[in-house]
Amino acid sequence: MAAPVLSAEQIEEETRLRETLANIKHVIIVLSGKGGVGKSTVSSNLAEALSMSGFQVGIMDLDITGPNIPKMFHVEDEKLLVENDKLIPVQVPPSLKLMSMAFLLPSKDDAVMWRGPVKMGAVRQFIEDVNWGSLDYLVIDMPPGTGDEALSIVQLIPKADGAVIVTTPQDVALLDSRKSVTFAAQTGIPVIGIVENMSGFVCPHCGETIDIFKSGGGEATAKDIGVQFLGKVPLEPGVVASGDNGMPIVVANPESASAKAFQKIAEKVIKTIENEQKYLEEQRKKAQEKNQ
Ligand SMILES: Nc1ncnc2c1ncn2[C@@H]1O[C@H](COP(=O)(O)OP(=O)(O)OP(=O)(O)O)[C@@H](O)[C@H]1O
């Protein structure tokens, strides 16, 4: 695909975006082919697990259709602070920084109803206007799906290191996860790997695992399309409760099966980004080849 010719205004905007992101070492975007597969749950637990590993971490909620990350950290009623014309992210103890399009809405019950260009202008300005300070990782929760909206938003993020793709074991979600891989390729973003969420239900009474939505498809798909498999997260009632109570399960119940799965996923993400640049480079090359 030929590189688009940018206008002076676009170049200036791009420069502003790069300046805003300059003190952020790594940007991870979290994608899903469809809604409801647990993208926000994975984003918040991944961010928290990275933070628990000692990194400076920010989480940015760009899921403009339903920005629910603040609720998952119980900061939905926080008011935004502005300093030197920049938005200051909300602090989630002990050290996570959080920013969400939800904070721009007059009421948390308001849906985002902006029309296309207005919406993209708002998202762009929003990304430009946050003062994150220095971060090791910024985790970005994207809108679900691989349509024009997600594409336009991803194109606003000039330096994503890679994408984490969330799927469930159902065939339809797996098909959608393939679309996410193609989507990442279109935007030139390497795929860090696939997470299979809601993979088997652990019975709280007997401990037996029941594969309600089947299991293992995410791993098979990852192998089939040559991307890393990051891990399976079981369907656990505690995940819903912790999301509703404003404390991700990795913090609320670190010994649970899903928390342990999230911790392992975070370790793999760290290892890939910090030590496996070769894998990411190969993914990037594959993406470029697909685009030619
Ligand atoms: N592993 C899991 N076990 C149990 N419940 C889960 C799990 N993962 C996610 N959920 C629940 O599924 C619901 C949808 O999750 P979430 O909001 O993270 O999905 P999403 O893909 O971000 O949705 P949307 O596309 O609508 O933004 C939530 O109620 C969440 O608590």
Automatic annotation (TrEMBL):
Q: Which domain of life is it from?
A: Archaea
* Entries under PROSITE patterns matching the protein: MRP
According to its UniProt entry, the protein's GO biological process terms are:
iron-sulfur cluster assembly
Q: Does the keyword Hydrolase apply?
A: yes
Question: CDD domains from the xrefs?
Answer: Mrp_NBP35
* Annotated GO MF terms: ATP binding; ATP hydrolysis activity; ATP-dependent FeS chaperone activity; iron-sulfur cluster binding; metal ion binding
Binding residues annotated for ATP, in chain numbering: G33, K34, G35, G36, V37, G38, K39, S40
- Keyword Heme in the entry? The reply is no
Q: Which UniProt keywords apply?
A: ATP-binding, Hydrolase, Iron, Iron-sulfur, Metal-binding, Nucleotide-binding
The Gene Ontology CC terms held by the record are: cytosol
Note the subunit structure.
Homodimer.
| HAMAP family the record matches | Mrp_NBP35
Q: What does this protein do?
A: Binds and transfers iron-sulfur (Fe-S) clusters to target apoproteins. Can hydrolyze ATP.
Membership in a protein family: Belongs to the Mrp/NBP35 ATP-binding proteins family.
Protein name, entry field: Iron-sulfur cluster carrier protein
